[in-house]
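> forwarded from #structure-qc
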């Protein structure tokens, strides 16, 4: 049964959890800023200021404002406010508004390295939390401030995130999603595979296809459970989303995205005000019966949805044996029809539920300032849901209006609220699909799933300080190692989340295109040739970082990667895979060279300088000696701290989080002791 204590505990868990997520995001930004976006970074901050904030570009360009000092100060302010929220010292709405505004400012200054959907999601969640959920009239949430009305915009945000993530996979008409084979590629082709990704890649196709089907069920029909007025059904929907996110965390490195998604599940578990009743044996039995009925309803609904979404298709093996496999029945046209017919109703239903919760809140505070505050709160929540819903109307060209709001009005609202309302949709199309996939039938009666993960490998000629070549390999080229991305075939996938190494993520995207469309990568090459210390810190090359050696020339090769395989019938049926011997499990990857991605360049290359100048990037290094634009001892200390923690972002985050937990525990214990002394 839901009680005021349960509601307030869940509410505090969400507000503190969001504080922890902001803390992780700010720490990750602070550690990476010098290499990515500082004056001497890959995308120099003075150029980013000109693009994002042209009104203050002049004082930055003239040196009246130190760009790096300003950004670092703002980032540290964000860290401090996040720690205040996470440790439970205060959860006032203004604090959430501040951290959201600060993070939005930093994202704008992050250039191409901060264009990911989770950055946008964090901004949207922070804004809705500040406006609808966090208390405005007190520093902390209390039983009087249990935000039942404020839960609805956050529930709807989670619905939008998951529903769009599922529906766009079908609308993209990617064969891997249609054939339910996406997981046969995903674990090896995702940006930064986790330590368990190799093992998941070895699972038999039956389990992998069942996993894809389950993902579709959780991301499309089960999202309805998140926005119904019945607590039992909402909790079932929330736990389904949490299980999915835990499985994603176990096999991939998606920074704070999965944690944020799970945090958004908490408002779905908060009960309505009218559900708080006096506990008795009869009400206990009634609660159990209601839970059973709600569970049965969920199971029946999902069973009907599965029947409509999937069908069984027969395959014929080479030996003449018939086999059956599950396939997706839904098409792009079906998705458009579903979106057109159901989304307006879903939005209106959510607005109705929010309005009913608001009416209950207003009835509790009929007169005076509390009544006006409750009425205003309800109106704000209704408005936020309409704003949050705007991107959903892009899913189908046939949706023209929402109730009395016409299409022209919807477009105007969408345009003016684009900062705090966005569309989502990860993995629309699966990358790294080999050319021979979907052709022929293997021994299991299935087309082979051939993985061809594109990966950029940087190679360099490394010399000693006296200029002598430090290599015995042919042509003197050595592969440059990074901390987290795949490189050598014997490098095991590593755990880095909740930190996101932004540069290595961008390299994954760069491998999907041409170097002409990734000027930042050429800028990176220019910086390491010039010996910029912050940029060289991105490499996992201790001798280069310690300045014992330097890079003379750099080139880039494009490879195709796949995980090695265990010796199974499924593995043997896939052409070109490396099957491990029973006695040798040292190789995690297999790879083959495809083509040259970037020709050999040195620091005096004129075409390099012309390319960077044409792309609007500064050339060479602006912060020699490791100083922050030469502003003094404080930057030397900051540089020293980054050198310590840049290779240990997970440790850095754990220390900060542990500090917040200890502060929260100490503060809570002190409050308990104070109340006990007062009672005595």
């Amino acid at each position: 049964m839901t009680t005021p204590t349960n509601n307030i505990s869940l509410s505090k868990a969400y507000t503190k959890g969001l504080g922890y997520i902001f803390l992780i995001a700010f720490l990750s930004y602070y550690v990476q800023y010098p290499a990515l976006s500082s004056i001497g970074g890959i995308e120099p901050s003075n150029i980013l200021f000109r693009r994002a904030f042209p009104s203050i570009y002049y004082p930055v360009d003239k040196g009246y404002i130190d760009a790096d000092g300003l950004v670092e100060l703002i980032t540290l302010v964000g860290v401090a406010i996040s720690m205040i929220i996470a440790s439970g010292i205060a959860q006032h709405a203004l604090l959430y508004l501040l951290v959201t505004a600060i993070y939005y400012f930093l994202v704008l200054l992050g250039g191409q390295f901060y264009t990911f959907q989770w950055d946008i999601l964090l901004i949207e969640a922070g804004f809705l939390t500040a406006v609808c959920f966090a208390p405005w009239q007190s520093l902390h949430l209390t039983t009087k401030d249990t935000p039942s009305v404020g839960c609805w915009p956050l529930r709807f945000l989670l619905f939008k995130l998951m529903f769009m993530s599922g529906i766009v996979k079908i609308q993209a008409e990617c064969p891997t999603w249609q054939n339910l084979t996406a997981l046969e590629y995903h674990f090896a082709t995702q940006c930064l595979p986790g330590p368990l990704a190799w093992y998941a890649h070895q699972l038999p196709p039956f389990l992998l296809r069942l996993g894809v089907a389950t993902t579709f069920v959780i991301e499309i029909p089960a999202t309805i459970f998140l926005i119904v007025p019945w607590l039992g059904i909402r909790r079932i929907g929330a736990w389904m989303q949490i299980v999915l996110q835990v499985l994603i965390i176990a096999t991939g490195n998606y920074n704070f995205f999965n944690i944020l998604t799970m945090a958004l599940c908490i408002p779905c578990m908060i009960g309505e005000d009218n559900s708080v009743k006096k506990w008795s044996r009869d009400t206990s039995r009634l609660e159990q019966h209601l839970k059973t009925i709600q569970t049965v309803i969920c199971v029946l609904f999902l069973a009907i949805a599965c029947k409509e979404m999937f069908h069984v298709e027969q395959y014929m093996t080479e030996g003449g044996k018939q086999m059956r496999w599950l396939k997706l029945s839904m098409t792009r046209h079906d998705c458009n029809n579903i979106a057109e017919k159901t989304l307006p109703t879903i939005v209106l239903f959510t607005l109705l539920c929010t309005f009913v919760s608001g009416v209950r809140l207003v009835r509790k505070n009929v007169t005076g300032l509390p009544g006006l505050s409750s009425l205003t709160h309800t109106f704000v929540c209704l408005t936020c849901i309409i704003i949050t819903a705007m991107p959903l109307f892009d899913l189908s060209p046939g949706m023209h209006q929402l109730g009395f709001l016409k299409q022209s009005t919807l477009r105007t609202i969408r345009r003016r609220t684009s900062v705090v309302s966005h569309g989502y949709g990860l993995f629309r199309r699966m990358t790294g699909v080999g050319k021979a996939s979907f052709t022929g039938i293997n021994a299991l009666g299935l087309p082979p799933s051939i993985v061809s993960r594109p990966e950029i490998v940087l190679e360099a000629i490394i010399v000693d300080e006296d200029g002598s070549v430090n290599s015995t390999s042919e042509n003197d080229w050595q592969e440059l190692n990074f901390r987290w991305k795949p490189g050598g075939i014997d490098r095991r996938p590593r755990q880095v989340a909740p930190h996101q190494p932004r540069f290595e993520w961008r390299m994954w995207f760069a491998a999907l295109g041409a170097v002409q469309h990734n000027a930042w990568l050429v800028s990176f090459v220019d910086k390491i040739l010039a010996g910029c210390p912050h940029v060289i810190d991105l490499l996992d090359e201790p001798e280069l970082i310690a300045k014992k050696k330097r890079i003379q020339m750099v080139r880039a090769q494009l490879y195709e990667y796949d995980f090695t395989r265990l010796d199974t019938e499924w593995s043997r049926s896939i052409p070109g895979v490396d099957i491990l011997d029973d006695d040798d499990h040292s190789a995690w990857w297999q790879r083959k060279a495809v083509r040259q991605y970037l020709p050999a360049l040195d620091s005096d290359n004129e075409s390099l300088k012309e390319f960077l100048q044409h792309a609007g990037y500064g050339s060479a290094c602006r912060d020699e000696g490791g100083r922050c634009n030469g502003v003094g001892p404080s930057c030397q200390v900051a540089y020293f701290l980054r050198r310590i923690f840049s290779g240990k972002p997970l440790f850095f985050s754990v220390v900060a989080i542990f500090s917040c937990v200890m502060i929260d525990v100490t503060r809570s214990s002190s409050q308990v002791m104070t109340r006990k002394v007062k009672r005595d």
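QC bot note: The first strand starts at residue 310 and ends at 316. Residues 585 and 617 are 44 Å apart (CA to CA).
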